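User: Before I run my own analysis I want an independent prediction to cross-check against. Here's the chain; please return only the structure tokens and, at the end, one sentence I can use as a sanity check.
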Amino acid sequence: MPDSMNQKDICIFFNRIMKNESDISAGMAAIQTLLKVLERSDSETVQELHLCLQNAVDTMRSTDHPVTGIASGCELFLRFITLATLDNSPFADCKRIMIQRGKLFYDKLFAARGKVAKLAAQFIIDGSRILTHSKSRVVLQTMKEAAASNKRFEVYVTESFPNNSGKEMCKDLTLLDVPCTLILDSAMGYIMEQVDMVMVGAEGVAESGGIINKVGTYTMAMCAREIKKPFYVLTESYKFSRIYPLNQVDLPNEFKYTASTLKKDLHREHPLVDYTPPSYINLLFTDLGILTPSAVSDELIKLYL
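Assistant: Structure tokens:
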């Protein structure tokens, strides 16, 4: 059996996934890493194993990758495999069942994006003009699904400063033969009156039904409501998180900044994400179905039962 993974091994494994598998989100990469830690752990009790996994989560949260998805995905994963703990059963049996449940959980989440895409693609009709922000894998998959159904539609994508991820999104859409226009972040208000709807992804979904996503999403949502355009969120349920921010300041700093930035003077730094309250969101398209923001808390209760 390979040696148990230390903090350095965990960072290397997690960072390698994030670097080499561009189609994998931070949350899914974190769950892959936890599965590897679980398989290689030399813990001798369930309590030791839980501590080992929690230490792995803390290690991944200390990397310069989005903490929002890591936090929610890992919390659900640990909750799911914990249900497999069998009282009065040998530890080896418990560990084997936890690994089986972990792999089952990962496979279920892997299929989630496709389910969201099939649901949301139905809302894209011929002649639609859609505005989206930054790059979202699930939004891209949805548009790929719609294009495969021979629907003709046009997309406007914000550049999404500071990493200009919208340029990559526009390139991906162009490869799908979907007409796409890259716009300045500051032009979202100007272009809003020309589109039929807004579709964005989410890095995390709060218990209130609000979302945490790339900075600028909140601005886009405010523009959409002012001009009375529907604002749709496309997201997998593993991004549902038991947090309840009331405003931007209330959002934890570790969600808004990378681990290295947290060591600096935050008054001089720009946040990477913002919080969009549920009142600005019309519908959430998820692998659990189409939800209103108020339904998210009920679904979270079911996930953690």
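Sanity check: The longest strand covers residues 153-158.
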